[in-house]
Amino acid sequence: MGMPDADGHGPFDGLPGLPPEWGRVVVPDDASALAEEAAQVRLELRPQAGRNRWRRLLGLAVPRDGRPPLGLPLLVLLVALLTTAAGLFAVTWPRTPRSGDRPTVVPYPTAPDLTGRVLPALELVDADDSVVSLRALLPAMIVLVDACPCPDRVAEAAELAPPGVTVVTVDGTRALRPTPVPAGATVRALADPGGGLRAFLRMPPRPGTATALLVGRTGNPVRVIQDLRSADDYRADLARLGP
User: What's the pLDDT score for residue 159?
Assistant: First the structure.
């Protein structure tokens, strides 16, 4: 059925111009005899055709040798690297604070309302580690010096205290510090390691600030001074504590 080409190549019984490694190629008279082989070839080429269709839609070149190209993996890798670099750049780039931004200020608690409450029977300790009942010293002006010794404020209170009114300083540790006071004035220095007085007032220590509590003879608080600064804040109440 076949004839050799001009150079004498190709089989006599086959198709000319085909590679010798293909072997003998026979074309049947009835093409339907190749239906099964054609269906198998189409089945094998269908996945490749789908990939080629997507590559055309994405504008990528379609490989002709059947081997997967490196363009798409490299493109995906490049996009991932650029995304990572952009994220790192955004995180590390210093941002200028807006002019309207201000730091959040947490206010200190206001003075508590002790109306109807009575000073608890607290037992404190003095410089000799002797137990002292705080209620036994009433009426009194109690100055909490655990956040600020404030010797000037304590001396001023001791000078203004009327007869029969005790000025007491309360520290949070047993290492009591004596406070110089004017001649004739007396200040009792006590320690409250358990923090019972602070718990009663529900006021945490504020650095650089002394808190004062004026208590009558019956144990009822008369006045709470959150920030002891001026004698004018308590002068009248302190005078009323006297006999």
Answer: 92
